[in-house]
Write a structure and sequence with these properties.
mainly alpha
Length: 129
């Protein structure tokens, strides 16, 4: 039964990654970093213009830090909270579910399951939006 609980955590985490849009926000961080580097290397810009653009980039990166942190907390805490609550219903034990995460076979299978769940949820959300 703990195996089902651990699988539920992985699948729900993968779906929530999509719901809170963590991957696109991470891509945005990379893009901003690349733009900032291009700004620094641009010899046609004055130092004042470079500083202005760098300040804009840093403000956006700070905002994204909070968005990514909050999204990660949601994606992690919601599945764990459900397992914790299900322990009171007698469905799973938190220790048993967390113990599953330490097994090499679950790490391998859970990774495959999580990746598959993420891509299925991406396709499902695209189709339904």
């Amino acid at each position: 039964m703990d195996l089902i609980g651990a699988m539920l955590v992985v699948v729900l985490f993968a779906i929530l990654l999509n719901v809170v849009r963590l991957v696109p926000k991470t891509r945005e961080v990379i893009s901003i970093g690349q733009q900032a580097l291009a700004t620094l290397r641009d010899t046609t810009l004055s130092d004042d213009e470079k500083e202005r653009r760098m300040q804009q980039s840093s403000l956006r990166l700070i905002a994204l830090l909070f968005v990514l942190t909050a999204g990660t907390l949601v994606a992690l805490l919601v599945p764990i909270a459900l397992i914790w609550l299900s322990e009171f219903a007698g469905l799973f034990t938190v220790d048993g579910v967390l113990g599953m995460f330490l097994r090499w076979d679950f790490i391998l299978g859970g990774s495959i399951l999580g990746i598959a769940a993420y891509f299925v949820s991406v396709k499902w959300f695209k189709r339904n939006s």
